[in-house]
Amino acid sequence: MPNTILYDDGTHRNVLLEDFDAGGFAVQSNQHVIVHGGEGMILDPGGHKIYSRVLSATFATLGNAKLRHLFLSHQDPDIVAAVNGWLMTTDADAHLSEIWTRFVAHFGLDHLVEHRLKPIPDAGKMLELGGVQMPVVPAHFLHSEGNFQLYDPVSKILYTGDLGTSLGTDYVKVTDFGQHLRHMEGFHRRYMASNRVMQAWANMVRSLDIEIIAPQHGAYFQGKEMVDRFIRWCSSLECGVDLILPSFKVPTA
Ligand code: FE
To answer: Which CATH superfamily is domain 4-242 in?
Structure first.
């Protein structure tokens, strides 16, 4: 699939890059680029198998704009494995939960670029892009223990990382929420930590004006009604520790 333009007003652009199949066994992942004026950001750039293709697609999307930020929602390999390459070939800073920065160094972080891996405190922070302030909002335990989402107030897109993931879809945008559920349910029941944290997230994001929810895997949700349905679904879902306790039994031969 070619690039998908989620928003473009002439100075501000949000682009979902074409799908770079990592091959075989590897989970599908989305790479999003935001450009405002002369500056750009890539979200969850991915691992080694797609690194060179994502890098060239990002530069093509940026045009004359300069890559300023790499936003890393959490520590998983499909998000951060190639971070050293990105830091070595660009001048951008990478932003990641403070509880993960020393672990990510094991992916092979050159000491020359270490200082450009910027820790995000638990409360989140603001990221500035071309003069626009974008909140990095806490989404801990959805699914990672140190997990963040990015809200872009110009396009009104909430980038939700693994929350909203769908697997096995052949479309980029959700049109039928009911039909879409079967692509989301299994993943969220296992990977999201609990209904309590889903509710806390839902209560927080209801204060944001959201037009699109864009996850890191699978299809995105567009329009107030679809966004609201997704948030309501999250806040009522039993998941994670709500369901896993009965499996704590020692296996027998
Ligand atoms: Fe993950």
So the answer is: Ribonuclease Z/Hydroxyacylglutathione hydrolase-like (3.60.15.10)
